[in-house]
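Hi P.,

Sorry for the delay on this. The queue was packed all week, but I finally got your sequence through. Input first:
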Amino acid sequence: MTRSPPLPAAARGVIAKDRGALARLITSAERRDPAAASALRALYPRTGHAQIVGITGPLGVGKSSVINGLLHHLRSIGRTVGVVAVDPTSPFTGGSVLGDRVRLERDPSDAGVFIRSMANRGHAGGVALATREVTRLLDAFGFDVVLVETVGSGQADIEVRDIASTSVVVLVPHLGDEVQTLKAGLFEIADVFCVNKADLPGADLAAKDLRELVSLGPGPGGWKPRIVTASAREGQGIPELWNAIGAHERFLDETGVRADAERKQLAAELLALVTEMVEREVSSGLERDPRLRELLDRVARREVDPRSAAELLASRVRGRRAPGR
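Then the structure:
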């Protein structure tokens, strides 16, 4: 009988509910450390159980306050929660404030909550490349719910759709007529709209505008986004928000939409990983491989155009990875 290979120590730590081991493995995954690959591979069969909820929306709408409200509500009903908060990276220094560790509130002694801030490292779409893997690690650790907060980059902040089963778009009353601009971006990914800071004037009007947009037609699979008003700092509307999220999760299961959505998410992840691998290989080659440096020199001398050079690089990569080679 063939024995299964032993689990890597990092994977065993996660299975044993060692929060230190989880934190260290998350760091390795975020740094794209090849050593993390074996643990991620070993833990993959243990994933697929957590409810993944994306929290997105423009800057300044109170996404962190909404997550704080959800944290308190979920713990009150006995659910364990992991949070991945993606913060923007400085284009000048490469650093990140990682301010969500300050904004998000938790009891340090509460083992039912784990919060991790991570930099997006300049990645467009509001989500870091490693976010999928970090989310999966929290799933493998055994958290019931994983909340993913994105950077908050407006209409481009839609990649969370490739990670979460339910996407919550947070808005504020003063958007007014600007809510029309959501048609081309965030509106298309919203499963639930949360009009936060509902104690401010204009909340009813913002909710009305959203209802009019939703009435134009159902979303994927026939789901019509729910609209919830809340004042997260006061804790108002948070149970209703969680109920709306739950309604969408039930819809996914009852209609069979979940399986198709997961396949699309996995396809997007595979594409992102392959792109990252090829980019890393080509980038390294341009620095170290004399043949690629010569090709780059020829482009600089205007002897070869960039597209032709790129096609040549792509063909070399394909040739090295061809079946049977």
